[in-house]
Amino acid sequence: MTAGESLELRSYKERWANLRQPASKLISELQRERLTSASLVDRATPDEQAAAYTQRSKTDTARERFRQLSELSRGSSTPAVRLQIDTVLTQVSQLEAIRGEVDAGLSPIVPTIEAYNAISDALFGLQRGVALIDDIPIYEQSRLVINLGYAKELLTREQAIAVGDPSEEERKLFTQLVGNRRFLIDQALAELDAPLREIQVGIITSPAYQRLRIMEEQIIAGHAPTGWPAASDALATTIDEAQNSASALLSERAEPVADAVLVRALVLAGTGLVVVVVSIVISLRMGNRLSRELATLRAAALEVAESRLPQVVRKLRQGEEIEVPELTVPGRTAEIQDVGKAFATVQQTAVEAAVGEAKLRAGVGQVFRNLARRSQTLLHRQRIQLDGMQRTATDPQALDDLFRLDHLTTRMRRHAEGLIILSGAVPGRGWRKPVPLHDVVRGAAAEVEDYTRVTVSPMPDHSLAGPVVGDVIHLIAELIENATVFSPPHTTVTVRGELAAHGFAVEVEDRGLGLSEEELAELNERLANPPEFDLADSDRLGLFVVARLATRHDIRVTLRGSPYGGTTAIVLIPGELVSERRSSEEESVTPQEHDPEPARRMRVVTSE
Predict the structure, then answer these.
(1) What InterPro entries does the database record attribute to this sequence (predicted)?
(2) Which residues contact 197 (CB under 8 A, 6 or more apart)?
């Protein structure tokens, strides 16, 4: 135990004088006022009124005394005790309201008794809080003495209920109080030490207490024993005096214990002071050396985390060769040297992991490109053959079947281009001259499986720069396909375009189930800042391709809710890529020489 704990024990007696004793006095006066109020409710005679008013004056005096002494103790009390003091003062402030209802005859006996009980319970809660002390034996005995005081409180509640002719409900409550009081007394006697137990045993073995128990049994049975008020009041007074004696005995016990603790604390403090001085001298010498070595270690760790590893990762993603110098941390302390070696191992492991990831991504990208290029070659040859068959076909049904095959080939070509985009390369499709934006959007709609559900609205007479036509067609086609996939088959997907302040805006609107605000925010973030492609996240492949294409040409793609409950994708093409159409020659959609493709028909539903 410390000197602070010794002072805590010494303040126990002060708290007893400033809080426990005033609270006990107030409890006693409240118990008497509860009894007189119950008598007044039972029979409002002039004598009962005079007795009630006299007792109220005594209660007010005890209340004011408690309020003054509690204010003196508030500053040195713990937050929990201060809260309990405030609770008691709040409950005591209800006395005027309780008295008013009693005088007006508005409150029956049981509610009146319960109103006073609430105030008494708050006071006993304060006493239990004040009894908290670090000396366990004293605390345990204090708790038992308080429980015995509460047993006396239950006895006074019995008096109040039995003041008249109790009803059946009141006798049940009386029976509960009798059982609780006897239980508290039996429990406390088993744990009290000899001096305190002797005081209580003298009470419960007295003839007066035995006579009281007989009267209680008679009241429970429905009888009204003669002499109950006098017998119960005399026993309550005896118990009160025993409580005061036990409280004084406990208060005296705390002081010698505090003296012994203080002496022991001083001896320990002197010894501890010598140890502390020696340890400080040793710590200062060791601390200076350790601080220098730790500063060096900290600088090396920050350099690895903030500079070296990010540079390595960036170079690996750019395909550059790297050389990572070995990390060395000078130090004479074995622990510092071990930490330095651990950092070097961590650095090497991180670099090896980054190199492995870069190689894996490069390998996957190469596989994507090889597969896509081969597919492109085969699809290009297939489209040439389909175009020749379409030109020679005369049967309308056969021509329609050839058209569907041609449309399927076009979609397969777009998927092959998607693989090339994922690999980081650029598709070969492009145009030399500007292409009307209306034709660009119609070409994108023609590459979608459910193209018959797509409605392309008329657009302003502007053209798109030839080098970006292929990527824009692919981008818009991915958005249209998403719209058709995630909307009911009977609904239409509307595509509109108009000139905006910062370029040309194309809107793709569906009438599906839509997305939540959180999903829209997440997808817009990925479209604005596309992450590295993750092979495990293939569900959003189309949007990843859209993000890559948009980033390549500084195109902004935004998703938002549609008034029809679906989703609207807005594609804002920069103004430098859009121009006004000046001649009919610029409107021809002629592919470049490296991607010669025959002209083919596009069946797209357009609005009038």
Answers:
(1) HATPase_C_sf (IPR036890), HATPase_dom (IPR003594), His_kinase_dom (IPR005467), Nitrate/nitrite_sensing (IPR013587), TCS_sensor_his_kinase (IPR050428)
(2) 189
Q: Which pLDDT belongs to residue 162? A: 87
User: What is the identity of the amino acid at 405?
Assistant: L
- pLDDT band of 357, cuts 50, 70, 90: low
Contact 595, 431 (CB under 8 A): no
**How far from the centroid of its chain's Cα atoms is residue 556's Cα?**
35
CA dist 397 → 177, 400, 402, 600, 605 (Å): 99, 5, 9, 17, 20
Q: Which phi and psi (to 5°) does residue 224 adopt?
A: -120, 90
DSSP one-letter code for 506? E
Reading the block at residue 148, the tokens are 């015995």
Question: Tell me: the pLDDT tens digits for 539-560?
Answer: 566 777 888 888 888 899 999 9
Window from 33-37, 83-87, 196-200, 362-366 with minimum mean pLDDT: 362-366
Query: Which alpha helices (H) appear in 75-167, and where do they start and end?
Result: 79-92, 95-104, 109-130, 136-161
Q: Are 119 and 95 in contact (CB under 8 A)?
A: yes
Residue 218 confidence (pLDDT) above 60: yes
Q: Which two tokens stand for residue 439?
A: 């034709």
When pLDDT is averaged across residues 454-468 and rounded to a whole number, the result is 89
Concatenating the DSSP letter of every residue in 45-82 gives: -HHHHHHHHHHHHHHHHHHHHHHHHHHHHHTTS-HHHH
CA distance 509 to 476: 12
| Cα distance between residue 365 and residue 352, in whole Å | 20
Q: What pLDDT shows up at residue 586?
A: 42
DSSP string, 356-374: HHHHHHHHHHHHHHHHHHH
Q: On the CB side of 10, how many CA atoms lie within 13 Å of its CA?
A: 11
Nearest to 137, CA basis, from 265, 9, 4: 9
Q: What is the pTM of this model?
A: 0.43
